Amino acid sequence: MQIVRTILWILLLVGVLAFSFGNWDRQIDVRIWPGIVWDTRVPALVIVSFLLGLVPMWLYHRGVRWRLSRRISGLETATASMAAPKADPTPPAPVRPEPAHKETPAEPDNPVEPEPTTRP
């Protein structure tokens, strides 16, 4: 795409140069206000008129591209922050393992069995 743009600018430059060489001998009077007359050549008038039309539109185009690129980058950051997993700031509490058998007998109050008693 860059080569096409370069070729178009070169063709425009060649056209302006050909027009300038062909019309350089003609001098015209441009009346800006009553009493103010500007003596200029035709190619200068054509180039100034072209630039007066091109520069504002080019500045507008650059402003729109700048604004849209800022908007797109803002939306991309918002999307990236929403898609990223949230890091939990507090570590989870350690989980105590549950006993394997729920039907285990309860421990006796006295874990040591008493000595057997003898009867006389």
From TrEMBL:
Keywords on record: Membrane, Transmembrane, Transmembrane helix
Transmembrane segments: 42-61
Bias (Pro residues): 88-97, 111-120
Region (Disordered): 79-120
Keyword presence, Transmembrane helix: yes
Origin superkingdom: Bacteria
Protein name, per record: DUF1049 domain-containing protein
